[in-house]
Amino acid sequence: MQSSVPIRPFSRRLNAIEMSSTSETVNAVARLRRSGVNVVDLGPGEPPFPTPEHIKQAAIAAIRENNTKYTAVPGMAKLREAIVQRHHQDFGSNYRVEEAIACPGGKYALFMAMQILMEEGDEAVIPTPSWVSFKDMVRFAGGKCVFVDTTSDNFVLTPQIVERALTSRTKVIVLNFPNNPSGALIDPSNLERIVEIASSRKIWVIADECYAYLTFVGKPLSVAQVMRHTSNVVIVGSLSKTYSMTGWRLGYALAPEPLVSAMQTLQSQEISCPCSVTQMAGIAALTGPQDCVEFMRREYAQLRDQAVAGLKDLPGIRTVTAEGAFYLFPDVSGQLRFRNLQAAREFSSLLLRECGVVVVPGEGFGSASHVRIAYSVSKQELARGIQKLQAFCLAHQR
Ligand code: PLP
Questions:
Q1: Strand partners for 100
Q2: Residue 62 above 60 pLDDT?
Q3: Atom of ligand 1 at shortest distance to CA of 106?
Q4: Among residues 270, 287, 304, which one ends one of the domains?
C-alpha cells in the first residue's frame, strides 16, 4: 500500500549502517529455495547440530513451571552466577556476579558496549578481516572505524600493527578470536601486549570471544588469562555457537561493574531482559555436562580438515588453514583474474548462478579478494559443495 502522506527522512544514524551481508545472503538463499533451486549453502554461520537435549528439556520445564515472566534486567541471579562460574572454571577468571550481564546474544552485548563507550568522532581500531557487524555497530554509535589489515600476514594480528593505528581519539580496540571470517587465533603473548598497550593509553579492549570454545590447536583462550587488571576490558561471550543455540539468543558480557551497570540501564530501556525461558536453558547449558561442547568441537575439526583438503591446490584459490571457529576465508584473486572479474561479490554471484553454491563475498569483512566459506554443515553437504566449487574453479585455470 502506498502512503500519500510525505514522511520525514530516517535518522542520519541509520544511514551510517547497512544490512549485514550475511543476513542478505540468508535472504537470497531463502528466495532461491522458494523458487525450487537446490542450493548448497556454505553461507551462514550456523551450527548444524540440534541444541543438546538437556538444554531443550530445561526450557520445556521452564514453560511448564510458568517461568514465563520478566526477570531481572541483567538476567536471573542464577544465570549470572552460572556465567561467572563457567568462565572461572574454563579460563580461571575471577569476575563477580555484578560484573556479568546476560543479553539476547553476544551481538547485543557488543552493540550496547559500543553505544556506551563511543562518543561522536571517537575511533575504534578493528583488525580486518573482521565480522561484518563491528563496523556498523561503531558507526551507529557515531564512531569512526580504523581498520588494520592482516590479510597479507596470513591473518596474524601483532601488537605492532595495532599500535601504529592508535591516535589520541582511539577509544576502543576490537579483538575477535577465533576470528570470523578467517578462523585465525591470536597468539597469547600478542594478546597480552595489545591489552597492555591499550591499558597504558586508557583505551578499551572489547574481546569478542563468541567462538572461544571452537579451537583446533591448543586450548581455548580468553583475554582473562593474560590481563593484569580488568578496568579496560570487556569480554563478550555467547551460547550460540558453543551449545548450538543460535536461535535462542543468549550471550553475555563480563566487564567492570560501572560498565555492566550502564549496560543494565540501556538494556532496561531496550528489551527489559533476555527471554526467561532461554535463560533457564542457558543455566542448564552452562552448569550441565560439557561433553556436548567437546563433541561439536571435534566434529568441526573434521569438517575443517575436509574443507581445507577440498580447497587445496585449486587453481586461483589460496587458503590459510583456519585454527578455530567454523570458517575458511580463501583468497580467490587468481580466479578473479582468470575470469576477468572485479571483486569477490561477482565471484560469489557467478558461483551461485552456475553451481548453486552459496559463499559470502569478502567485501563486508574487509576484503574484495576473499570469500567466506562456512563449513558448519553436514559432511555430505560439505562434500557436495566442495565438488561443485572444484568443478567451478577447474573450468577456469588461466
Ligand atoms: N561475534 C561474532 C564474531 C559472530 O560471528 C557472531 C555471530 O555470528 C556474534 C558475535 C554474535 O553471536 P550471537 O549474537 O548469536 O551471540
A1: 254
A2: yes
A3: 16
A4: 287
